[in-house]
TrEMBL record:
One MF term in the entry's GO annotations: alpha-L-fucosidase activity
Keyword annotations from UniProtKB, A to Z: Glycosidase, Hydrolase
EC number: 3.2.1.51
Listed GO biological process terms: carbohydrate metabolic process
Protein name as it appears in the record: Alpha-L-fucosidase 2
């Protein structure tokens, strides 16, 4: 696999500290009276969330995670609450959601759609086509570990923080002249949560620790230093929980005494304590829950116990920094950045606090590293952090936007490895989805609809209005192709190719000829979560050939053609895919000048919908089928669509709009949406995205949107500062990735390139677009370039070559 470990710095000596480039930039100008700092000024851009008080609620607590497991750290003084999650703890057990009645009903549903008998078609789908049961299983909380500190009284000098550069939370405070410090991190190398308690006076550490859980569970003593929590996941839709779990907590004290009693872990008079927490479940795969949770949890705990705290911390930081440290971003800073994080959000003053945007960007990267690492599962609707047995939307994988949005920052912000749990999920879905393809459609290949869960359900679920959408698996397949576009990794493409091929085969089997137009279209389907007619007392969404489907399939067939050519495979199927792509319904412009959401230009309420879903602009982002340079009429229609859709929207919807406006090269509108995202109604005190309630996709979509404002790489070109807002005239980034196998560093001043470096991993040709003309050198020598249009240079690269970009014609 390609090595992505090198820390990015500009060749001219730009270094990195606290996640920011140390460059000598010009003073920023701000409309506020806040004191501004120079871009890259040492110590002026801390990547830390901090608060002067303990968390009073879950959305104030700070998340730690290592992919498979995580915790929310509250930072209390009298009591510390660690809310615990393990990412395979799902309600219910292995289950086949497919409906044996579905295939017989499919022809009639299609006929009713063609005849525009929408209500009848949707009702029949609800009765005969939906999965059994119609609701999928929720992802569930494991429980809490509470640390109670006897005698804790009045405290002063309190500070609670999360250092994004180290992935460590720290709490410090003073009681009776003694300073107490508590550090918490989740170790990927050792697969444990680590809590380190110290004080500046010997013998001052004492506490009682005990597990609790809303699950069916019990606590027990394992040995003189270790306690356990054993339980089983909850029931769902009448199906009993089958996932058994065990959590262990062990105290390693320096000085003092450790004992256990009645399920409690008791530490008295210690100088320092390392508390290790291990969690495991019996979940081995979506088909098998026969694992030994107790053995697995003890294995990790035993290994971690053998390692001193400093070794645990060093290995954790080494592993984490290898990913996080690849990218830095500096947008300048002001004195507002010194305030507690929640106060900065509450001020709603992004113009006067540009560092908040950089912090939000890096927080998204932190969350992705923390919630999507092997051996864990893909990040779900809440990443891994959930304190409920019945979380909102079951905290599943919603694959009509939310799951895919989780991974928008993965490639572009240099976190390629975080894709791996998602790719494992897609492999599972291809297996269960092949069964659904046969049962529901009588088709080959595989299909997944708008939701899936820990049991990899691929049948349509919820209600027909939401669930009869067969294109979720196709969208997921495009993340496999995206991986190749960024890395050029043919071995990975070869592994993933059967998944893409299976999706293509399903649609070649199931696409229907629209009797009015002759286009190939999906039927039945819908534009996700948006109705097109009121039929009596019912809002109907079911239709044929919604625009989003056509855009996704156009990219799916194109990706398959290209992958097939790269790997020299399936030439016959390649030709079929090419022919089918040419017959798909095109993206159309409607009567209001908008991108049509459906095959027909429906009017009335449908055309004026204010839904937070804007699925028919999928071709603008994440695809590049709509482009201001190449398809200006469609781009103008996309702009009109966004205007008609209005400002309504949850956090994730606003995040998507940042990306839309950036792709339209409208910096002011992109920045406006970012500003609207970073307010208390949509960003919690701990910077979690609010739908509301919490959904993590908005964090990831926001990080992606900031990246798109600074660097775009679709359409076979790299576009620097594509949608740079006026509020960020000077700044710098390093380590961002561009399609084609490039890594980019950049410093800009006055909105133009000041100095940059492009590193070529694959030796491909570069088409570089910049705000003003640039020159290109390598090793101090001029590089021959073509200039096909103003502010565009085209030049060849060599593998591992580095190319410096400077202003000039």
């Amino acid at each position: 696999m390609t090595d992505y470990s090198r820390r990015s710095v500009l060749a001219t000596g730009l270094g990195a500290a606290a996640g920011s480039l140390l460059v000598a930039g010009a003073d920023r100008a701000h409309a506020s009276a806040a004191t501004s700092s120079r871009v890259g000024e040492p110590g002026a851009n801390p990547l830390t969330l901090w608060y002067p008080r303990p968390a009073a609620q879950w959305l104030e607590a700070l998340p730690v995670g290592c992919g498979r497991m995580g915790a929310m750290v509250f930072g209390g003084v009298a009591t510390e609450r660690l809310q615990l999650n393990e990412d395979s703890l799902w309600a219910g057990g292995p289950h086949n959601y497919d409906n044996p009645e579905a295939l017989a009903a499919l022809p009639e549903i299609r006929r009713l759609v063609w005849e525009e008998k929408w209500k009848a078609a949707q009702n029949l789908a609800d009765q005969k086509f939906m999965g059994k049961p119609t609701e999928q299983a929720p992802y569930q909380v494991l429980g809490d570990l509470a640390l109670t500190f006897p005698g804790a009284g009045e405290f002063t000098e309190y500070r609670r923080e999360l250092d994004l550069t180290r992935a460590v939370t720290t709490v410090t405070y003073l009681i009776g002249g003694v300073r107490y410090t508590r550090e918490v991190f989740a170790s990927k190398p050792d697969q444990v949560l680590v809590v380190r308690l110290t004080a500046d006076k010997p013998g001052s550490i004492g506490f009682e620790a005990a597990f609790t859980s809303p699950q069916s569970s019990s606590s027990a003593v394992v040995d003189a230093r270790t306690i356990a929590l054993d339980g089983i996941s909850g029931e769902t839709q009448g199906r009993p929980g089958e996932v058994r779990f065990r959590a262990l907590a062990r105290a390693e004290a320096e000085g003092g005494a450790v004992r256990t009693d009645a399920g409690k872990l008791i530490v008295e008079g210690a100088d320092a304590v390392t508390l290790l927490i291990s969690m495991a479940t019996s979940y081995r795969s979506y088909k098998d829950v026969s694992g030994d949770a107790a053995e697995e949890a003890m294995r990790h705990l035993t290994r971690a116990t053998s390692r001193p705290y400093q070794v645990l911390l060093r290995e954790h930081e080494r592993d984490y920094k290898e990913l996080f440290g690849r990218v830095s971003l500096d947008l300048g800073t002001t004195d507002i950045a010194k305030l507690p994080t929640d106060e900065r959000i509450a001020r709603r003053q992004l113009d006067a606090d540009p560092q908040l945007a950089a912090l939000y960007f890096q927080y998204g990267r932190y969350l992705l590293i923390s919630s999507s690492r092997l051996p864990g599962h893909a990040a779900n609707l809440q990443g891994i952090w959930n304190d409920s047995l019945t979380p909102a939307w079951e905290s599943k994988y919603t694959i009509n936007i939310n799951c895919e949005m989780n991974y928008w920052p993965a490639a572009k912000t240099n976190l390629i490895e975080t894709f791996e749990p998602l790719f494992d999920l897609i492999e599972d879905l291809a297996e269960s989805g092949a069964r659904t393809a046969k049962t529901h459609y009588g088709a080959s290949g595989w299909v997944a609809h708008h939701n899936t869960d820990g049991w990899r359900g691929t049948a349509p679920v919820d209600f027909a209005f939401y669930g009869v959408w067969p294109t979720g698996g196709a969208w997921l397949c495009l993340t496999l192709w995206e991986h190749y576009l960024y890395t050029g990794d043919e071995d990975a493409l070869r592994k993933h190719f059967p998944l893409i091929e299976g999706s293509v085969r399903f649609f070649l089997d199931t696409l229907q000829v629209d009797p009015k137009t002759g286009y190939l279209v999906t039927n039945p389907s819908h534009s996700p979560e948006v109705g097109h007619h009121e039929d009596g007392d019912e809002n109907v969404s079911i239709c044929a050939g919604p625009t989003m489907d056509m855009q996704i399939l156009r990219d799916l067939f194109s990706a398959f053609e290209q992958a097939s050519a790269v790997l020299h495979r399936d030439e016959e199927l390649r030709e079929k895919a090419r022919a089918a792509r040419e017959r798909l319904a095109p993206t159309q412009i409607g009567h209001l000048g908008q991108i049509q959401e459906w095959l027909e230009d429906y009017r009335g309420d449908a055309a004026l919908s204010r839904s937070r879903h804007i699925s028919h602009l999928w071709g603008l982002f994440p695809s590049d089928q709509i482009d201001p340079r190449l398809t200006p009429e469609l781009a103008a229609a996309a702009r009109r669509t966004l205007q008609l859709r209005g400002e309504a929207g949850a956090g994730w919807s606003l995040a998507w709009k940042i990306n839309f406006w950036a792709r339209l090269l409208d910096a002011a509108e992109a920045y406006k949406r970012l500003s609207n995202l970073l307010i208390p109604a949509r960003t919690a005190p701990n910077m979690f995205d609010l739908h509301p309630p919490f959904q993590i996709d908005g964090n990831f979509g926001g990080t992606s949107g900031i990246t798109e404002m600074l660097l775009q790489s679709h359409g076979d070109q790299i576009h620097l500062l594509a949608a740079l807002p006026a509020q960020w005239p000077d700044g710098a980034f390093s380590g961002l990735l561009a399609r084609g196998g490039f890594e980019v560093d950049l410093e800009w001043r006055g909105g133009d390139v000041h100095r940059g470096e492009i590193r070529s991993r694959l030796g491909r040709k570069v088409t570089l677009r910049t705000p003003a003309p640039v020159t290109v050198t390598s090793g101090g020598r001029p590089v021959p370039v073509e200039r096909p249009e103003p502010n565009v240079v085209v030049f060849d690269t060599r593998p591992s070559g580095a190319y410096e970009v400077r202003p000039g014609a």
